[in-house]
Write a structure and sequence with these properties.
Number of domains of chain A: 1
Structural class of chain B: alpha/beta
CATH superfamily of the largest domain in chain B: P-loop containing nucleotide triphosphate hydrolases
CATH class of chain A: Mainly Alpha
Shape of chain B: globular
CATH architecture of chain A: Orthogonal Bundle
Order of helices and strands of chain A: HHHHEHEEHHHEHHH
Number of helices of chain B: 9
CATH class of the largest domain in chain B: Alpha Beta
Structural class of chain A: mainly alpha
CATH topology of chain A: ABC transporter involved in vitamin B12 uptake, BtuC
Oligomer: heterodimer
Largest sheet of chain A: 2 strands, antiparallel
Radius of gyration of chain B: 17 Å
Strand order of the largest sheet of chain B: 6-7-8-3-9-10
Helix content of chain A: over 70%
Strand content of chain A: under 5%
Largest sheet of chain B: 6 strands, mixed
Distance between the termini of chain A: 42 Å
């Protein structure tokens, strides 16, 4: 029972990171029909930005301050990278899905190559405070502190994003645009600005997901390809949750995170087949696509 | 009198089909001009081309501006209210949020739209997707009337609605036409006769008749142009 609870806890933490990685992707596709293959790059850039912040600022600031600044830096760099990508590369290519896919894949390959050239292809270690590595002892369970960080960040972003989408004018424009972009334009609204904003928000969440994945699940390591492997799960979450739905992404991220943790331990642990966790998420994707092609919360196409 | 809309040699192709083949007409400022024709002759496409929602070639002047190739939002900001054929309310948003999106500047007159459609006020927190067809059409019209616009483009407001509601909407549009120029696409000839002063008839992507609404009193002409009996 204890093991089950610990697995559940880390499954929720993994789900929180999947949610951060997927919700931006989902909004970007839902609003603009852009399949953004550079989203993994924003995660990687976030992680490297966090690494740079944590290693270059003076240690005298203290490890807790440094890790907070690293997370903030990762979020900002993700947002900036995504905003610039939209303005410079995506904007001239609206309505050309193949070109968008090619240019975002190309951007990802090129910048990941640059990162390898600049930082090397081996993983780098982010210095983190000891308490992030230690577990908290609750009711006979040892729960990793880093997981609390991921769950907290995921919850704050989910609530913040829901409030933004429900209450603010830009949030309402984005929801309306996901439903019917043309009619938003016909009300005299410049949807282009909403497009850039969605990229910036999505990029911020991707940057945050990138650094948190390093801290929570990757032994504080950052590596050039980490975003791309996370991107695969983000796509799975987006499709299961339904394109354009934040709530759908949140639910699907939790389901995928939990399923992955349970199957890796209960099946993978006994059979020695460690990849069963990843495989199970792909199987879940296949089942959802067969049974409900628009995803759990997706609009009717 | 100046013209609110002037179109000449307007061509639109959609998915390889040449939908508008050199359409030209003008809509004088003030009053209601009805755009008529059988199904599929390009009435809706003409409205969409004016709004820049479909790619077109030719000359389009709206409220004194040459708007061909302008982005839609910029054309609309000249002062256009648009009621699309399928209402296109945002079904996931509440009535209130739908109206909020239609606000432009500080001129939103909620008292006016709520006096026209009191039901929208009582249902302001209801999701638009759960409204009836008639209520959705109210919302769609209310969006266009929220700010007083010099030009209204209204596409088949009576489509699929009960006669009582159609008559109610006709009254609302009659009132709106007192201070706005209206270009109305409508199949219901009794509504056209009640509201419009001028008619433009399209067939096969071209203008085949320009005239006064009284032309519709001639049953032979109506049958010839619209393929329907003029008894309505």
């Amino acid at each position: 029972m204890n093991i089950f609870l610990v697995l559940t806890f880390s499954g929720v933490a993994l789900g929180a990171i999947y949610f951060l990685a997927a919700s931006g992707l989902s909004l970007i596709y839902g609003l603009m029909d852009v399949l953004n293959f550079a989203h993994g790059l924003f995660m990687t850039l976030g992680a490297y930005a966090g690494y740079e912040v944590a290693t270059r600022l003076p240690i005298s600031l203290g490890a807790p301050t440094l890790v907070i600044l690293a997370i903030v830096g990762a979020t900002l760099v993700g947002a900036l990278a995504a905003g610039a990508t939209e303005l410079i590369l995506i904007r001239p290519l609206y309505g050309k899905p193949i070109s968008q896919i090619l240019i975002t894949i190309g951007l990802d390959l090129a910048v990941v190559g640059l990162l390898m050239g600049g930082f090397g292809s081996t993983a780098l270690q982010i210095p983190v405070p000891l308490w992030l590595i230690e577990p908290t002892h609750i009711g006979g369970l040892f729960l990793p502190n880093a997981s609390f960080l991921a769950i907290g960040a995921g919850a704050i972003v989910l609530i913040g994003l829901e409030l933004f989408l429900a209450r603010t004018r830009y949030g309402i424009i984005i929801r309306a645009g996901v439903e019917n972009r043309e009619m938003v334009r016909a009300l005299g609204i410049d949807v282009g600005r909403a497009f850039t904003l969605v990229f910036v928000i999505g990029g911020a969440m991707a940057g945050l997901a990138g650094i948190l994945y390093s801290i929570v699940f990757s032994g504080d390591l950052v590596s050039p390809n980490q975003g791309d492997s996370l991107l695969i799960f983000a796509f799975i979450v987006v499709v299961i949750g339904g394109l354009g739905s934040i709530r759908g992404s949140a639910v699907a991220a939790l389901v995928v995170g939990l399923l992955q943790q349970y199957t890796s331990f209960y099946i993978g642990g006994h059979s020695g087949w460690a990849q069963i966790g990843d495989l199970s998420t792909v199987l879940l994707l296949a089942v959802v696509l067969e049974w409900r092609p628009r995803g759990l919360f997706g609009r009717v196409a | 009198m100046t013209n609110a809309i002037e179109i000449s040699d307007l061509h639109v192709s959609i998915a390889g089909s040449h939908v508008l083949q050199g359409v030209g007409f003008s809509v004088p400022s003030g009053g209601v001009t009805a755009l008529l024709g059988r199904n599929g002759v390009g009435k809706t496409t003409t409205l969409r081309a004016i709004l820049g929602l479909v790619a077109s070639s030719g000359r389009i002047q709206v409220l004194g501006h040459e708007v061909a190739q302008w982005p839609t939002h910029r054309i609309v900001r000249l002062g256009i209210g648009y009621v699309p054929e399928d209402r296109d309310v945002f079904s996931g948003l509440t009535v209130e949020q739908n109206l909020r999106l239609a606000e432009s500047g500080s001129g939103a007159d909620y008292d006016e739209v709520f006096s026209l459609f009191p039901e929208l006020k009582t249902r302001s927190r209801q999701r638009a997707g759960t409204l009836s067809g008639g209520q959705q059409q109210m919302l769609s019209i209310a969006r266009a009337l929220l700010n007083q616009r010099p030009l209204l483009l209204i596409d088949e407001p009576s489509k699929g609605l009960a006669p009582k509601i159609v008559s109610e909407f006709a009254g609302v549009l009659e009132r709106a036409a007192q201070h706005s120029t209206v270009l109305l696409v409508e199949q219901n000839l009794s509504v056209v006769k009640r509201l419009a002063q001028r008619i433009v008839v399209l067939d096969h992507g071209e203008v085949v008749h320009l005239g006064e609404v009284t032309d519709l009193d001639d049953p032979t002409l109506v049958r010839q142009l619209l393929g329907v009996s003029g008894a309505a």
